[in-house]
Amino acid sequence: MYRAGPKDGIAFVTGASSGIGRATSIELARRGYKVAATARRAEELATLAGIHADKIFAFPADVTEPENIAWAIAAAEQAHGPIALAFLNAGVSHLAAERRGFDREVVWQTQVVNIGGTVNCLGPLLVRMGERRKGQIVINASLAGYGGLPGSPGYGASKAALINMAESLALTCPSQGIAVQLVCHGFVRTPMTGQEKAFAMPFLIEADEAARRICDGIERGGFEISFPWQLTTGLKFLRLLPYGLRFRLLASSLNGARRRK
Residue 231: which CATH number? Predict the structure, then answer.
């Protein structure tokens, strides 16, 4: 499987204005990449770019607008060279709203950003990398995509779709010289998880630690980059169980987490 390196071209990171995207942009720059960082919030991107002025470059864009994100990809390549590595990380979570009850608009907007935004990036990236017959694409999903969880019909479904999409691409893209990887992570301290007050978040890690693990996995190769191993193992085991038993265990775990909180 192809593994990109700083000598092959630049890294392209979406959702880079905060959280995992911001931390991963900084970590990639530390490892020698020039990073084209994109997000909607131009001021936060400018602050990020100021950390490594010679390594991180801001390209404000909205992943939900196909022409806008295609422009950012083209502009980044024109300014700094071919994109060798793309970390498709942009996403939203409205779990507090989801737990209040099913809201069509909340669920739909989650799909528009998490799935649609990824698709809008994949379109131009796959064409450009395919023409060069070289590239590495990393899709950030979540352990929440392993199976249905209470109060997460929108977020969980969007991440499950990304897992399925990454699996499909990983089976077809190598013939074009493109490696596809998947990130499935647990709880990471970000502005997104900072809004969560309803239950405990076991094995919570800092964003810079998540970025280090992601970048280690990018360099190591293989399809899935998952952490922490405790949650990964537990949730993969749950997928093997009959639904009745799985549902009882999840309900029991959720009630326990609420009591501990």
Answer: 3.40.50.720
Long-range contacts of residues 103-106, Cβ cutoff 8 Å, at least 24 apart: 106/154
| Residue 182 contacts residue 176 (beta carbons within 8 Å) | no
Which active-site residues does the annotation give? Answer: 155
Size (the chain), residues: 261
DSSP state of 193: G
Instruction: Work out the angle at residue 9's Cα, subtended by the Cα atoms of residues 122 and 114, and round it to the nearest 5 degrees.
Output: 25
Amino acid at 260: R
Q: Which domain holds residue 239?
A: 6-260
CA distance 166 to 144: 15
What are the tens digits of pLDDT across the range 249-259?
988 876 655 54
User: What is the spatial distance between Cα 18 and Cα 25, in angstroms, rounded to a whole number?
Assistant: 10
Residue 1 lies in a domain: no
Spatial distance between the Cα atoms of 85 and 218, rounded to a whole number of angstroms: 9
Q: What is the mean pLDDT of residues 222-235?
A: 96
CA distances from 136 to 16, 47, 126, 188, 259 (A): 18, 27, 10, 24, 43
Residue ranges of alpha helices (H) inside 31-154 are 42-51, 66-80, 95-99, 104-111, 117-132
Run of H or E residues at 183: strand 178-185
Q: Structure pTM?
A: 0.94
- What pLDDT, on a 0 to 100 scale, did the predictor assign at position 65? 98
Question: What DSSP element (H or E) covers 185?
Answer: strand 178-185
Whole-angstrom distance, CA of residue 2 vs CA of residue 219: 10
Maximum distance among all Cα pairs of the chain, rounded to whole angstroms: 55
* Residue at 74 is within a domain: yes
Contact indicator for 117, 66 with CB cutoff of 8 Å = no
Tokens describing residue 228: 């922490």
Domain count, the chain: 1
